[in-house]
Write a structure and sequence with these properties.
Length: 477
């Protein structure tokens, strides 16, 4: 068994861990990209030296000038991107470190909130025990119980009458003459007809003995209506009686000092909510940095860098440079042997670096996918109200294993969401004091809704609980 906050903390720590892994890959990818550009620049320098050695001055100037421009643009773009990426990396590290510390603070504040709510529950238990022999309280409680019993009996009678009506009215509904006269309101003040119609309607009425059948059918249809109205009035009386009981309990709680404890709970909840909002803002900022960093690391998404690298690659792919290379390979001289050796050294290193960068990019993409899965489960956790103070998960080890499986790439957010749904239990399992006196109230007269969520279909709130927001804990115990 683990608390809701512990489960959420496991999830948050897993997300931060994946982010740190992403940052390590980012550093590796940046290094590979920079090395690739440096290798291309060395390649360009070698070709420029080869051009100056083997071409005439005019042609050599043309070739080296184009390579100079492409090389300069590529190096400038990589340096600009490097500076921008370094700034983003520093911001990301600061945010991730702040989130890690903030999550610990949020855990501590959530624990303080739990303790404050427990203190209110404990006081309510003591007050409840004190009122156990109080005549006024017992009378108010017994009145609620009595009306509830009567309401249940009335509802049962109404249900039976409605069921009987469905069976017993069939002969009446099957008689078209009776149905016609009933719909016309024959025999009542609502009946309107001319002389001729009245004459023939009277004959039809005598034919089916309508004067005797109508009162019977009227009683048959009217009894369920009256019984249902009576049951509804009793339900309203239950609400009134419960309000009186809750008011009596609340007065006793206030006499025992509950308001100070509620104020402490309200303060703890306000602080917790402020911390959570602050962390959410940091997470949003981190998500924006993710996009900026992704664009810088992906050459296709970084237009200036992409153009510079394409320009350098195009300059190096010139046909005359390829011819120079072939010629230098076929007829090596002492002067160009060193250049040819440099080019031979650069080519496999360049291929390795490009392959390495692509592999790192694929790994980073997969890590980002896993992080997205974890973040989706985090949103489900909050949307379903699993972070409600006092919530528990009976399958804590399973949750940890599934999170590990998601990081390993074998499981998805659906598996984790299913585990959350199976293992979670509401804080209504707290002490019986939590349902005493209408539940915890905040000094402002309102109630905290910072963590409250709509009831989930799998765990509906009990009908007997009065409607309250925030720390809803019900009516009588």
């Amino acid at each position: 068994m683990i608390t809701s906050r512990q489960a959420l903390s496991q999830l948050e720590q897993a997300i931060l861990g994946v982010r740190r892994d992403e940052d390590r890959l980012t550093t590796m990818l940046k290094s590979a990209a920079e090395e690739t550009t440096r290798l291309r620049a060395r390649q360009a320098e070698a070709f420029k030296a080869l051009a100056r050695l083997r071409l005439d001055a005019l042609q050599a100037n043309q070739v080296t000038g184009e390579l100079d421009t492409a090389e300069r643009d590529a190096l400038a773009a990589i340096e600009k991107g490097k500076a921008a990426l370094a700034e983003i990396t520093a911001k990301r590290k600061a945010l991730i470190d702040a989130l890690a510390g903030g999550e610990k603070s949020l855990d501590a504040q959530a624990e303080r909130l739990e303790e404050a709510i427990d203190a209110v529950d404990a006081l309510a238990d003591r007050t409840k025990a004190r009122l156990a022999d109080d005549a006024a309280w017992k009378a108010a409680r017994d009145k609620v119980v009595d009306i509830e019993a009567k309401a249940a009996a009335a509802a049962e009678k109404a249900d039976q009458a409605e069921k009987d009506l469905a069976d017993k009215r069939k002969p009446y509904d099957a008689d078209p003459i009776f149905t016609y006269l009933w719909q016309r309101g024959y025999g009542t003040s609502a009946y309107r007809a001319g002389f001729i119609a009245r004459f023939f309607d009277a004959k039809l009425a005598r034919l089916v003995d309508y004067d005797k059948a109508r009162p019977n059918f009227y009683m048959l249809t009217e009894i369920p209506v009256r019984l249902r109205e009576h049951a509804n009035r009793l339900n309203e009386a239950i609400a009134t009686a419960k309000s009186a009981l809750v008011a009596l309990e609340r007065k006793a709680l206030e006499a025992d000092g509950v308001e100070a404890l509620e104020a402490a709970a309200a303060t703890a909840d306000t602080t917790r909510k402020a911390l959570a909002d602050e962390l959410d803002a940091k997470k949003a900022e981190l998500a924006a940095l993710d996009q900026d960093q992704g664009a810088l690391l992906d050459p296709s998404g970084n237009a200036p860098l992409a153009r510079a690298i394409e320009g350098l690659a195009a300059a190096l792919a010139r046909e005359d440079l390829a011819s120079l290379h072939r010629e230098a390979l076929e007829t090596p001289t002492p002067e160009d042997e060193r250049i040819v050796a440099t080019l031979k050294e650069i080519e496999p290193a360049l291929r390795r670096r490009e392959a390495e960068a692509e592999e790192i990019r694929r790994t980073a993409t997969e890590l980002a996918r896993k992080r997205t899965e974890l973040e989706q489960s985090r949103e489900t956790f909050r949307r379903e109200g699993y972070d409600e103070p006092g919530g528990r998960f009976s399958n804590g080890p399973d949750i940890g294993d599934i999170i590990g499986g998601m990081i390993g790439g074998m499981l998805t957010s659906r598996n984790l969401d299913d585990a959350f749904g199976r293992g979670w239990s509401r804080p209504s399992s707290r002490g019986s004091g939590s349902t005493f006196g209408g539940g915890i109230r905040f000094p402002s007269g309102g109630s905290s809704s910072s963590w409250s969520r709509p009831s989930r279909p799998s765990a509906p709130s009990r009908p007997s609980s009065p409607s309250r927001g925030g720390f809803r804990t019900g009516g009588r115990f």
